[in-house]
Amino acid sequence: MRIGAGHEVSHANDWFCAWLGLGAEHIVGRPLEEFLIQAHDDLFPAGSGPGPWMMLDKRRPSKAVMVTRSEGDGHEMLVLSEASERWRALCELRRSHALADRTRARLELVMDSSVAFSTATSEERLAMILADTATRAYRAEHSAVYLHQPGGSSTLAAGHDPFDGRVDYESLISLVSVPRRTIKVVGPEDGELLLPDLGAEMRAAGVHALIAAPLHHEEMDFGAFISWFHHVRTFDDEAAPLAEALAGQAAQALATLRLQNRLAHAATHDDVTGLPNRRLLELELSTIVGEVGCATLFVDLDGFKEVNDRLGHHAGDRLLHDAGRRLLSGVRAGDVVARFGGDEFVIVCRTDDPAAAMEVAHRVLELLHGLDDVASTHSRLNASIGVAWAPPSSGLSAEHLIRAADLAMYDAKAAGGDRIVLADTWTTVADPPPGDRRGNATARSDLPRAVI
To answer: Where are the stretches annotated Disordered (predicted)?
Structure first.
């Protein structure tokens, strides 16, 4: 084939005409670029010089020729030879090398993410690592991590939701959590087949594709992660295994975090009432006493042993749980309610005024009586309450303050129970606040003072 000065075809032999499937009259005189295009992925660039280089049939890019150049008689001579099989082999080799490079990079990413997941100290941090890793792994515009919460709801734990909440999080999670499989969506039409309105939302948000994987470990379902693409995207055979590997690692780390949290909670909370236990109470109180004014209310349920003995431990546990709920409803924001042991509870109030602590004591005693509309399994609970108060910079220990309130509680119980005793004067409150229907407390100001 000869090429003129304007790069038009001046002569085409029979082989080239047959290869193109065109007659010479349709080729000669027309620019070469109408029939052949440069193969940009060629190993040999098509610059100046004799070649060789690859060119592709413009109408059928799977057909290729090997081209060499020579000069003669004022014309440029191109020698073409069939190279379609060679071109396909070269493209496959390139794809293999690219896949090997991606596989190596993804393997390194999975190994790095495994280390990162193991160092996460919170679910929020772990979700951020997963969202960032998935975005980089798939070169996505965004990734999002959706997690089931203990209360039954689902939240966006990390990343970006392109639908801005218009698609329910639980619906997105269910795409993969119910079948427990990775899904790949290429185009809004695919999305519409999976979830009603998903295709429409993808179009509205400019999402062309997505890949999603469930976060589950053994029998535990934690949620899902989804990577979103705002460009046209297809997925190779390794896309799903990579998603499963990342999701599996993240789910295992989530299971470990939640187990650690449950163990930590169990170590510091009572399993019957859910309140802080004695250990956590003493830790909390030790950071408060001496820094600010602080009052401790020691609450002992009157007659609990009889209920426990007569109705059994299950009934006793229900009573304790109910009492804990009532105490929580009577304290102020920032006050601490803990189960000290048996039928004993301790309330810690930050206050510079012992009168404020007495108000809390009266309120919780009324709530134990069931005077307010608090749903409970028992209409009335009686209690003996001891109150001890320490001013700021008192130098007292948490143990000392609890002990003083405990002794005051025993005085209240010895006086007949169902009353409040203030430890720093050993005085039983004489004037109950309005609404106290008992009216049975008497002043004991003649008794010696208890030193706190």
So the answer is: 430-452
